[in-house]
Amino acid sequence: MNMLTRRLLIAVTASFAFGGHAPAQDKSIVVASTTSTQDSGLFGHILPMFKAKTGIDVKVVAQGTGQALDTARRGDADVVFVHARPAEEKLVAEGFGVKRYPVMYNDFILVGPKADPAGIKGAKDIVAALRAVKTKGADFISRSDKSGTHQAELNLWKVAGIDIGKDKGPWYKEIGQGMGAALNTASASNAYVLADRGTWLSFKNRGELVISVEGDKRLFNQYGVMLVNPEKHPSVKKDLGQQFIDWLVSAEGQKAIAGYKINGEQLFYPNAGDSGA
Amino acid sequence: MHMGADITKIDHNDGICARYLPNRISMTNDVSALHLVLSGDAALFAIVRLSLYVSLSAVVLAALIGIPLGAWIALTRFPGRQGVIVLLNALMGLPPVVVGLAVYLALSRSGPLGAFGLLFTPSAMIVAQTVLVMPIIAALTRQTIEDLWLEYRDELTAMNLGPLGRVAALIWDARFSLVTALLAGFGRAAAEVGAIMIVGGNIEGFTRTMTTAIALETSKGDLPLAVGLGLVLIVIVIAVNALAWSVRRAGERLAG
Question: ipTM greater than 0.85, yes or no?
Answer without folding.
Answer: no
